[in-house]
Amino acid sequence: MPFADDSYLYCRATSTETARVNELLSIFEKASGQQVNFGKSSAFFSPNTLTDTRTRICSDLGISEASEDSKYLGLPSMLGRNKNSGLGYLWDKMQKRIQSWDNIFLSRAGKEVMIKLVVQSLPTYAMNVFLLTKDICNQMESLMTRFWWQTKKDSSKGIHWKSLKNLSKHKLKGGMGFRSLRDFNLALLGKQGWRLLVNYDSLMGRIFKACYYPTTSFFNSELGSNPSFIWRSIFESKPLLRSGSRLCIGSGLSANVLNDPWLPNDTDGFIQSSHPALIGTTVNTLMQTDVFPAVKTSWPSPKPKPFTHLLNDLLRETTVEKQMRVTLYCYITHRTEDVIKGNLKLSKLVPS
After folding, report:
1. H runs (alpha helix) in 103-172
2. Percent with pLDDT over 70 in the chain
3. Any idea where the domains of the chain sit in the sequence?
């Protein structure tokens, strides 16, 4: 699995697999003219691997075993059950950075710049991948508030006139515009979930779909019995994505009536109905056949009473009104597939 200028090689913890890895590396060196730097290479083992087996494999490969606190590209290579211990280096990093400013006199404006541009950006890289625990977020926010209210450079004491919740508000609302680390973390993870929705044919999208939701979509996925920490982190951002995205209807063949957000509503884009006839159905069943019988591209007119009565029986009256307001994506782009869009872009496709 190549990444940047490095590669991950996966194998079983046996002598036969180790010999094949050595053979593969030898072929690579002859074909490319490059040489593997074993001094910068390391081996990871599953927890159930015996100590003697680990020692033998490392000796055969000529590399060392990776430690528990090892990092790759700035992120922990392994995370155990105690996430506070594995991600605690972020708190240490922030504390050291703030302590390095003890000998510098900073005004309120200078502290504001340091907090917004330096301190709050330190955990951003890890927040793109991992959901930080609430304890770590609270500890880092406590460091920021102490630094903000600190009155003397040789003392961390100071009167906290406002809580971080008030400081995180916009300046127009009486705050300082500081970030809530928990909310910012969920927003960054929501970007990863958005990539799974939009770029579902990418390598990342195909791997996650095959592992966690092979027969359904990301919106309808479940956490699973033994999820990875990365999937668990992205899964936490799903309610945020469900509230801020809408499915633009083309043919309606891939849009589920009950489980996909496709109604033009700012608060809730899901159908509110418990009728058993709608379970497992797609949106195209609510559309009338146009010129071509095989493609349904328009909503039924309110005039045909039988079909209107059918909608009123299946859906609530307010839901029928919202459904009739949906502008078909195929009429705008001349494409028949159903496309997920952000709620802000939806205003351009759906009339008010």
Report:
1. 108-114, 124-127, 134-149, 164-167
2. 77
3. 2-77+325-329, 83-179
